[in-house]
Amino acid sequence: MQRFEGQVAVVTGGGRGIGSGIARRLAEEGALVVISDVNGDAAGAVAAEIVTAGGSAIAIAADISQREPCCALIAEAFDQKKRIDILVNNAGINRRGNLLSLSDDEWHASFAVNLDSMFYLCRAAIPHMIEAGGGVIVNTASQWGLHPAPNHIAYNTSKAAVAAFTQNLARDYAPHKIRVNAVCPGEIHTPMLEAGGEAVGTDDRRSRQACSLRPDRKAEGGRRPVAFLASDEAAFMCGSLVEITGAQAVA
Ligand SMILES: NC(=O)c1ccc[n+]([C@@H]2O[C@H](COP(=O)([O-])OP(=O)(O)OC[C@H]3O[C@@H](n4cnc5c(N)ncnc54)[C@H](O)[C@@H]3O)[C@@H](O)[C@H]2O)c1
């Protein structure tokens, strides 16, 4: 399938984890993928791997918690082919803790990376999409934004805001043929999840057992669902919050 032939897709947080899988998938299906990450070397390695495999990708280092790098990223991505068809707002951080244990910095960083970045990136990309007559935005929220796990108040609240942001943006820009949806993954095997297990002193045997549908939980974190949402197959999906959990309950 070459659902994205000729298209330009921007993927934030594409240097590892779920974002690198999304970038590979979009490239396999024909997109020129602009892989962005605060870790420029990691983004470069994923882009090089895609190019070696015969796909098209470039890497751009950017800290998307700040407005200027977001604007520069979209400008550089647009310059590639004078179009931005797909924006995947995937980058995120998980600062664990409750109201009393979190620092002010951890709270603000959670919102800066998880939410403010989307505000800046969408605001930079949407005028190009309007001009082109349409586009697609896929945001990464979380199952925990809808059904909070304990002791993650900053993460969960920022992801709940991502869900609301997604639905608002969808309402406002559907008339311009811009489809905005969010994926809400459950626990997926990535460095973020592994760090969480280490932080609370557990391995993830418990959640493995709880996810009987797909015990490895490697591929379903958003890669194929994001490609689906970005494609014309999802032409009537706009403002949807798509949970990807394998029926695993929040514990
Ligand atoms: N892994 C899970 O279980 C899970 C579940 C639900 C939602 N999510 C969400 O999926 C997304 C990807 O998560 P993951 O598990 O792949 O995480 P990860 O930590 O493995 O990867 C996140 C990537 O984002 C990048 N990043 C972090 N801060 C950045 C910044 N300021 N600017 C640019 N890039 C930055 C990191 O360098 C990293 O490459 C996140 O939004 C996360 O909240 C993950």
TrEMBL record:
- Keywords, alphabetical: Oxidoreductase, Plasmid
**Residue segments, region Disordered:** 197-219
One Pfam family it belongs to: adh_short
Q: Which molecular function GO terms apply here?
A: oxidoreductase activity
Q: Which domain of life is it from?
A: Bacteria
Which InterPro entries has this protein been placed in? NAD(P)-bd_dom_sf, Sc_DH/Rdtase_CS, SDR_fam
Q: Which family does it belong to?
A: Belongs to the short-chain dehydrogenases/reductases (SDR) family.
Q: What is this protein called?
A: Short-chain dehydrogenase/reductase SDR family protein
The scientific name of the source species is Rhizobium fredii
